[in-house]
Amino acid sequence: MVDRSPSRPTRPGTVGRGGLPREQVPSHFDDGAADYDRLVGMNPGYHDHLRASAARMRLPRDGAGLRLLDAGCGTGASTAALLGVAPRAEIVAVDASAGMLERARTKPWPASVRFVHSTAETLAENGVEGPFDGILAAYLLRNLDDPDAQLRRFHDLLRPGGVLALHEYSVADSPRARLSWHAVCWGIIVPLGRMTTGGTALYRHLWRSVNTFDGIGRLRDRVRAAGFDAVHSETMTGWQNGVVHTVLGTRS
Q1: Does an H or E element contain 70, and which?
Q2: Which of 160, 170, 172, 207 could join 216 in a cystine, given CB atoms 3.0 to 4.6 angstroms apart?
Q3: What's the rounded Cα separation, in Å, for the pair 175 and 6?
Q4: To 5 degrees, how large is the angle CA 58–CA 60–CA 66?
């Protein structure tokens, strides 16, 4: 229901694409971490759709011999999705929010899963280096200051033949999707966030950031421009149809 893993801060007071000043976003996710799993659990399809995006990566052999990156793992929902389709893979899961990672680490994981506190832009500085056979980035790209640079970094982190999956909200190309997103945010997400956490800043940030993000066509174009081949997208079922998408690309 809410997204996570904001990028590095911009200048103090700078308001990013989503409305919150960038330097405030990590602390909002830290503050919301305790209620995050409960909130997304109320969102029909949330976990199923993450698993769908992971399955669309078509990782072979249950992940045996593969090394995967979960970029923007939050409290581990996307990590669990990757683990579900590739139980034999090594998974490195990273997030910029210490509070979200603290929640993730309390859950039972096999030794093949490792969590790292890092922004997407500073992976190497925090000991996360390629090559990877697959990268899943869920609800991440829209929160970055320079999504094109990050897509190029993802490309460079992949082995030849490696696959990138972006699991992301995108409504700009569809009036129906924009209307659905507005109705769900102001009818459910924002009121539920207020009732659960006592605040709405993070949920209003979510609403704004999706409204101002790329249409799905533009997002596919970004992935192609970063050097990926076989770029395509698939959407989800339920109210998320046309709202939540998987964009896939392969490094040649």
Answers
A1: strand 67-71
A2: 170
A3: 27
A4: 110
Report CA-CA distances (Å) from 171 to 20, 56, 233: 20, 21, 13
Rounded (5°) CA angle 127-129-132: 140
Report d(CA 23, CA 13) in Å as an integer.
8
Token pair 């209003």: residue = 204
What are the beta bridge partners of residue 250?
163, 229
What is the DSSP-derived secondary structure letter of residue 215?
P
Tokens of 173: 């190309």
Render pLDDT for 177-227 as a digit per residue (tens, 0 to 9).
999 999 999 998 888 878 877 777 778 888 999 999 999 999 999 999 999
Average pLDDT over residues 234-238: 96
Rounded CA separation 241/119 (Å): 29
